[in-house]
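Subject: for your reference before the review

Hello V.,

The reviewers asked for a structural picture of the protein, and I figured it would be easier to keep everything in one thread rather than splitting it across files. Below is the amino acid sequence we used in the manuscript, unchanged from the supplementary table.
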Amino acid sequence: MSKRAYNFNAGPAALPLEVLERAQAEFVDYQHTGMSIMEMSHRGAVYEAVHNEAQARLLALLGNPTGYKVLFIQGGASTQFAMIPMNFLKEGQTANYVMTGSWASKALKEAKLIGNTHVAASSEASNYMTLPKLQEIQMQDNAAYLHLTSNETIEGAQFKAFPDTGSVPLIGDMSSDILSRPFDLNQFGLVYAGAQKNLGPSGVTVVIVREDLVAESPKHLPTMLRYDTYVKNNSLYNTPPSFGIYMVNEVLKWIEERGGLEGVQQANRKKASLIYDAIDQSGGFYRGCVDVDSRSDMNITFRLASEELEKEFVKASEQEGFVGLKGHRSVGGLRASIYNAVPYESCEALVQFMEHFKRSRG
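And here is what came back from the structure prediction:
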């Protein structure tokens, strides 16, 4: 095999090499069936075993909380932006949103198409380079739910704790940091995540939801936009993204092998500290974008003295085998996405490159 790229893409993102190699070995003939899992009926026992195992394994990693169901949906987190208010925002209620960056803004935009909304807290005044304090969150009395984005992929800000919302369901978009650390699922009514950052390939959206919230969805909604369709049919009402779900299950096995969420959190903090230290100890050559207390362990954003210098950095990095270090087009700058599957060795190589670039341009 040729040398693997230093993959810092924000999503689709790096997958564990061990998982890719397992999938490669099983790709043509899955468990001596004479078929790839991509070729099997989703109604067959072999595929259904994988499907059910992935659901059970995900809940086990979260401590097997009672009363929750794992759903596999398509359409990405962007479809969830609409499905959530469609299913939970009733007449006379208000959907509450914590505004923390680009993805929270997109979620709110969709909710406004459905019904009444309220910004319960916002860090827009800082250009989303900080996060609101939990005590600053103010919901309206008729709240249908409170929605927050646990980690803003573009800006690089991450909540370190979550609010206690009492009887109001807390809904979390965890697309870019799910399973990167332990968290108490019992705090949430629903969490969702596109798989393509920490869970597997693009094409699968994982929803973990309290079953009492989705026992019956509004009758006027189309079938595939109703959560109860997925609950009542075990996410098999129509053909699911079967290979993607198989890959999710393999990634979950890989997380188990690394000590579960505690193990991956320890590894992620070590990687993040390595790169943030390089930024902070550069004498101002590199400048972290986000306030220190709000920094993400998944998406590290930083700047150089000029856009021209940043373009030189990206070009030089690509020549050395680095991928994905250009910041999102909406904010510019530089970004290193260091999800679970990004090896520590890639982060070491990045720091060495940063030091070399600083010496040559500083």
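For the response letter, the relevant points are probably these. Residues 26 and 165 are 45 Å apart (CA to CA). The chain has a mean pLDDT of 97.

Happy to draft the paragraph if you're swamped.

O.
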